[in-house]
UniProtKB/TrEMBL annotation:
Assigned protein family: Belongs to the L2HGDH family.
Signal peptide: none
Domain of life the protein comes from: Bacteria
FAD dependent oxidoreductase domain sequence ranges: 2-377
Classification via InterPro entries: FAD-dep_OxRdtase (IPR006076), FAD/NAD-bd_sf (IPR036188)
Species the sequence originates in: Actinomadura craniellae
Cofactors that this protein relies on: FAD
GO cellular component: cytoplasm
GO molecular function: (S)-2-hydroxyglutarate dehydrogenase activity
Protein name: L-2-hydroxyglutarate oxidase
Protein keywords: FAD, Flavoprotein, Oxidoreductase
Gene3D superfamilies named in the record: D-Amino Acid Oxidase, subunit A, domain 2, FAD/NAD(P)-binding domain
Length: 382
């Protein structure tokens, strides 16, 4: 269930093996949330611990995604990416990213000097960088729509899941649908739907809004491809970065602030019951106790464009406040464990005939076709 790119990829994989599938989606369209609000980056596998699900499925998924887009005439642009060490203190972290990337088999990887960085991205500045030429940009919503079209009417939009129960060998949903197997790919609602299926209370989804700005048309030449800073290893977020889009625009962002609703794309989107559910989760309270200073800084910076731009200027110095305008935000479904730790890897559970995807943030879109293979194998197990 769930008609984001992951749910659709799973349904397509199962249908291709001869299964009869139905996709249940609460919205009136596919790709309504994370799939339709992400940065459009097809990741090459730089950051992920070797051997993790993210590392294995991202590398496999990138190749499958490239083939899928080529076969269907969908945009797939290998614009490349640089990860910039802004000062000597970040060189060790850059070296660790390079170690992971090489262990993961990321192709074409190059370590750049400051001069080499300027050859790839003339307006970027740093003491060193890592260049991944095979990192690409795509339109994930278009990919999801193509997958839905392949399913030939199997997607039931406007169908929110409110009840799941076992009845013998079947799984009954909403007292209307009966399945031999059920795969939960519910994104921002994955914890709630997993609990309906009898899965454990944790981890819980904590929604983080990522707010973006966009370069004004006359300043998109500041960026050729993708420019990222060396990320803070304490968080699964990659920091404010520059992302070229397939339509030619360039986004700057995101930050990461607590969303006040699971689908809280705007600051004024507040749902008290959902916010209270987040605040009372013991894992969130432990997370907040550790990182409240960082959270306040992110919230303050998101409210002041000048502070937001100052962060981006640390590796693209020519950027000015007048160069950016607000852009649409996204919401990341970040799973948080009971002990307050942010779940980093993909997390998949199983309760009999029900498979639950409990954590699938970036690079889940890149990895979707490979995750679908993995879940289809799990679904085939008795």
């Amino acid at each position: 269930m769930g008609a984001g790119i992951l749910g659709l990829a799973v349904a397509r994989q199962l249908a291709g093996s001869g299964a009869r599938v139905t996709v249940l989606e609460k919205e009136d369209r596919v790709a309504a949330h994370q799939t339709g609000h992400n940065s459009g980056v097809a990741h090459a596998g730089l950051y992920y611990p070797p051997g993790s699900l993210k590392a294995r499925l991202c590398r496999r998924g990138l190749g499958l995604l490239r083939e899928y887009c080529a076969e269907r005439g969908l945009p797939y642009v290998e614009c490349g990416k640089v990860v910039v060490a802004r000062n000597p203190a970040e060189l060790d972290r850059l070296a660790e990213i390079e170690r992971r990337a090489r262990a993961n088999g990321v192709p074409g990887l190059r370590r750049l000097t400051a001069d080499g960085l300027r050859e790839v991205e003339p307006h970027a500045a740093g003491v060193a960088a890592l260049h991944s030429p095979r990192t690409a940009i795509v339109d994930f919503a278009a990919v999801a729509r193509a997958m839905a079209a392949e399913l030939d009417g199997a997607v039931r939009t406007g169908t929110a899941v409110t009840r799941i129960r076992r009845s013998g060998d079947e799984v009954v949903v909403n007292e209307e649908f009966a399945f031999d197997r059920l795969v939960v790919c519910a994104g921002l609602w994955s914890d709630r739907v997993a609990r309906l299926a009898g899965d454990s209370p944790g981890p819980a989804i904590v929604p983080f809004r990522g707010e973006y700005h966009r370069l004004v048309p006359g300043r998109t030449d500041l960026v050729r491809g993708l420019i990222y800073p060396v990320p803070d290893p304490r968080y699964p977020f990659l920091g404010v970065h520059f992302t070229r889009r397939v339509d030619g625009g360039v986004d700057v962002g995101p930050n990461a602030v607590l969303a006040l609703a699971r689908e809280g794309y705007r600051r004024r989107d507040v749902r008290p019951a959902e916010l209270w559910e987040t605040l009372r989760w013991p894992g969130f309270r432990r997370l907040a106790a550790r990182h409240w200073r960082t959270g306040l800084r992110e919230m303050y910076g998101s409210a002041v464009r000048r502070a937001f731009v100052a962060e981006a200027r640390s590796f693209v110095p020519e950027l000015r406040v007048a160069d950016v305008t607000p852009a649409p935000a996204g919401v990341r479904a970040q799973a948080v464990d009971l002990d307050g730790s942010l779940v980093d890897d993909f997390r998949i559970g199983r309760i009999g005939p029900v498979i639950t995807v409990r954590n699938a943030p970036s690079p889940a879109a890149t990895s979707s076709l490979a995750i679908a293979e993995h879940l289809a194998e799990q679904a085939a197990l008795d």
